[in-house]
Amino acid sequence: MFPIAYHPIYKHPVPENHRFPMEKYELLPQQLLFEGIVSEEHFFQPTEIDTNTVCLVHDSDYVNRYMNLQLTAKEIRKTGFIHNAQLVQRERIIAQGTLTGALKAIENSGIAFNIAGGTHHAFSNYGEGFCMLNDQAIAAAYLLKHHLVSKVLIVDLDVHQGNGTAEIFSNNPNVFTFSMHGKTNYPFKKEQSSLDIALENNTTDAEYLQLLTQHLEPIIAAEKPDFIFYQAGVDILTTDKLGKLNCSINGCKQRDILVFSLAKKYHIPIQCSMGGGYSPDLRTILQAHVNTFKAARDLLI
């Protein structure tokens, strides 16, 4: 079965206005265990990532000021978070969880998960949109630097464009960034990914899955990646407060099945970070995230 990075820091108190989006990270492991999808031995608790690894993709001045709580008020407002030591620790643990998961996926030629992660709005020299350190970008750069892979594909299917990821790898031919996102959604100023598919409001399951099928396998066949990072945000759901699309729970699951099936078909290890999800009913968010794990489990049986 697959390794899963879990972050006990989410059990610590957080500001009330951040509580709801954070709550899923605490409840998701419990739900996976309750439904018998995984067992306790599948979880691992990552440590804090080291600064040198973070600086593979992030500007050292930004990283040092971020970690020493020296960001400006303007920079802090852009992230949407309260800047404190607990937040810095949380981001470093998330990033290490994705990196460790990627290494485990390579070792086992399989799939690894991060209960959190998918912080794709973090740019090389600043954070925004509740993202301070770009976990999948950091892990991708580490794998390339240490010659563990030669070509990385980042598949970002969160409803929001992976703008930070696109900026970080804009001049790196060894990373192909694919983002399929809401055309009129945040970020309103888009960056240029290797390939961007901008979706109209109210895009349905059929339209969504047709576009994903049309583009993803040809990318894999042409680019021949030896590792995939998958940002599996569930904010594509019609119930999502921030999404603007019209995808169902089943459509979201079919999306995950398609991504994992192609990774299996081409024998490519894959690391999956859970990304966003903002439906009013927390049960909807949990169900959609649980389905991502079910899709992976069913392919491994």
TrEMBL record:
Domain Histone deacetylase: 18-291
InterPro entries found in the cross-reference section: HDAC_classIV (IPR044150), HDACs (IPR000286), His_deacetylse_dom (IPR023801), His_deacetylse_dom_sf (IPR037138), Ureohydrolase_dom_sf (IPR023696)
Keywords recorded for this protein, A-Z: Hydrolase
Pfam family, one: Hist_deacetyl
Gene3D superfamilies with a match to the protein in the record: Histone deacetylase domain
Keyword Cytoplasm (UniProt): no
Family: Belongs to the histone deacetylase family.
Protein name: Histone deacetylase
